# Entry
Amino acid sequence: MNFQQKNGRIWAENEEGRLVAEISFPQVRRDVVNIDHTFVDSSLQGQGVAGKLVQAAADQIRARELKAVLTCPYAKKWFETHPEQRDLLAEP
# Structure
């Protein structure tokens, strides 16, 4: 699956141009983004797409030298199971 990216958003569309996967992480402070939303269409569920979205977001956040807070429940679970990425998390 090929994701499209811009600062604060990563998404994929199907052949018809319909949104089928998305993660958003808007900047909330000078050096902090909030991973606030992950969406995967039911046609893609069970294929690991949500995890790939969070990994792509983590890669973008790291490349931009930012930190993240998490309000998306899926992202919270993902970071719990990926301790090697926890250095991206902002101090509470």
